[in-house]
């Protein structure tokens, strides 16, 4: 027995319980990060599409101005 009266088995069980809790919390945080990354990827793709479309329209406008 230890000073506080707990047996080794009790201490191990408490440690295992804490590990399971920490593992659940870690997986929750990983899932939240995954969702945020997916959201950021969508924003980046939409932004890139807008920039490409805008550049394309500028090029078309310049070409039509040069051809006239």
Fold and architecture overview:
With 68 residues, this protein is mainly alpha-helical. It is built from one helix and no strands. The longest helix is centred in the middle third of the chain and has 60 residues, at 8-67. The protein is rod-shaped. 0% of the residues are buried. The model has no long low-confidence stretch (mean pLDDT 93).
List the helices and strands and how they pair.
Layout lengths: L7 H60 L1
What Rg do the Cα atoms give?
Answer: 29 Å
Strand fraction equals under 5%
Helix % is over 70%
**pLDDT under 50 segments (min length 5)?**
none
Quick gist of this model?
The protein is mainly α and 68 residues long.
Notable traits:
single chain, 68 residues, mainly alpha, 1 helix, 0% strand
